[in-house]
């Protein structure tokens, strides 16, 4: 999407550079490997933004405008199905803000609102109606709690300072952070009023995303993802035009600092992580990070040589390719994280020890996959998490408290439990006796002694 849009707007080199910047942005690439709704909604929002730019840019005729606006409305609708009202809130707020600072109100006449509402209703209404018909309580939970309560309150305990997303972007977009911000600032400062300005629209979109989520009472790093593609497009255009000598020096310095940090990952783990299973696993992952740092260093060295030859955009692309290979190598070690963050092999250890009618407990935690692997429901102890809605609508499924679990564990004289390590002192204080079947960095599997 980014490459095609950049190419259509400013030419092939700008599109290629923008795509490579996005590929080499660590936060974007690494979060993109996680099973989260945020990257799905980022894709649909980026599709909506790109289609909107092509629909409104100078030279787009009526037929082309209509065709691209159909793409905008389809993308927004699919974004709603992915993660709700945020898929509509971000574009609307961005458009209002852009129109206000640009004084370009004519863009509203080219939105095809009637057609857009029809597309949204056709794609989204069946799901909303089916959801309300099947489970009206969840429909209310989805609309009220997951949108307004999450945004306006701190109920989810994801409280961060107002500058949280600025810090996340500054570190997560290295080495491009400053160059992206500079490109965005120039786009606003040099905008032409009274007409559609693609660069200003991109900068406003990124700014709205950061401000909107900074105002939320619930903050998580992946929320900022929709701000990255527009800034990558702006930086791709800047690279095509040619970075200044100062811009090249800053970019090279940040890239070199990032490379040094990657190469130092192994010593940092040995120095900072306490002895134990976590240190062992982090040490293994750091080997992959170091290998990635070697790839990134080749890109930086290539950029240094190319810039000395006066080949500016090729130097930028060298950094991009080196970092892209770096993040792919780093992700090559991601499977090691299964041992660090999960309980691989737990099913084989637990299943033989759970007789018919015996309970399976999750104490202080809940791993969704484990219930499916064992083919039975787990009895939760001192854990609610994102299952809070179920407990509010079905009081019979309330989790056990620690005292109740201690009594039940003692009376039954059987059963197996997955225990979050941090709650073990509570169990020991209550006199709960266990025998460890398996130990992981964050969890224990125990049975009755």
What does this structure look like?
The structure is a single chain. Helices cover 66% and strands 5% of the residues. With 449 residues, it is mainly α. The protein has a five-stranded mixed β-sheet with strand order 2-1-3-5-4. Strand 4 and strand 5 form a beta hairpin. The chain is flat and about 75 Å long. The model has no long low-confidence stretch (mean pLDDT 85).
Quick structural gist:
The chain is mainly alpha-helical and 449 residues long. The protein contains 22 helices and 5 strands.
Q: What's the total helix number?
A: 22
The whole-angstrom Rg is 26 Å
Q: Could you give a short account of the major beta sheet?
A: 5 strands, mixed
User: Assembly type of the shown chains?
Assistant: single chain
List keywords for this structure.
5 strands, 66% helix, 22 helices, five-stranded mixed β-sheet, mainly alpha, single chain, 449 residues
């Amino acid at each position: 999407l980014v490459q095609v849009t950049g190419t259509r707007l400013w030419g092939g080199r700008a599109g290629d550079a923008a795509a490579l910047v996005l590929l080499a942005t660590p936060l974007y690439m690494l979060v993109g490997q996680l099973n989260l709704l945020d990257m799905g909604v980022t894709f649909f929002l980026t599709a909506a933004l790109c289609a909107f730019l092509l629909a409104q840019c100078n030279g787009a005729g009526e037929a082309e405008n209509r065709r691209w606006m159909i793409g905008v409305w389809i993308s927004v609708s699919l974004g709603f199905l992915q993660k709700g009202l945020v898929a509509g809130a971000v574009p609307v707020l961005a458009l209002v803000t852009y129109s206000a600072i640009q004084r370009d109100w004519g863009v509203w006449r080219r939105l095809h609102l009637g057609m857009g509402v029809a597309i949204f209703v056709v794609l989204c209404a069946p799901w909303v109606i089916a959801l309300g018909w099947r489970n009206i309580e969840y429909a209310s939970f989805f609309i009220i709690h997951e949108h307004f309560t999450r945004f306006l309150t701190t109920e989810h305990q994801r409280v961060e300072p107002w500058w949280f997303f600025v810090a996340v972007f500054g570190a997560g977009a290295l080495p491009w952070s400053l160059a992206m911000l500079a490109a965005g600032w120039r786009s606003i400062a040099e905008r032409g009023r009274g007409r559609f300005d693609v660069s200003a629209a991109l900068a406003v979109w990124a700014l709205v995303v950061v401000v909107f989520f900074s105002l939320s009472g619930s903050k998580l790093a992946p929320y900022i993802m929709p701000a990255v593609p527009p800034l990558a497009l702006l930086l791709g255009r800047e690279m095509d035009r040619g970075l200044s000598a100062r811009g090249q020096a800053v970019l090279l310095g940040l890239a070199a600092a990032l490379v040094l940090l990657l190469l130092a990952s192994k010593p940092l783990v040995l120095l900072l992580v306490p002895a134990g299973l976590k240190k062992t696993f982090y040490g293994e992952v750091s080997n992959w990070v170091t290998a990635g740092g070697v790839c990134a260093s080749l890109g930086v060295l290539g950029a240094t040589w190319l810039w000395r030859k006066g080949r500016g955009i090729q130097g930028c692309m060298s950094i991009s390719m080196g970092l892209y290979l770096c993040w792919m190598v780093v992700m090559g070690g991601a499977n090691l994280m299964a041992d660090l963050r999960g309980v691989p092999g737990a099913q084989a250890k637990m299943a033989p020890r759970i007789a018919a009618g015996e309970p399976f407990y999750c104490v202080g935690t809940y791993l969704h996959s484990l219930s499916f692997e064992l083919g039975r429901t787990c009895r939760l102890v001192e854990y609610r998490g994102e299952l809070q809605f179920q407990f509010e609508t079905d009081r019979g499924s309330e989790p056990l408290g620690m005292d109740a679990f201690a009594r039940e564990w003692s009376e039954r004289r059987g059963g197996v439990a997955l225990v979050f390590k941090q709650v073990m002192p509570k169990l020991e204080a209550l006199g709960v006796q266990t025998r460890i079947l398996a130990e992981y960095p964050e969890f224990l599997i125990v049975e009755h002694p």
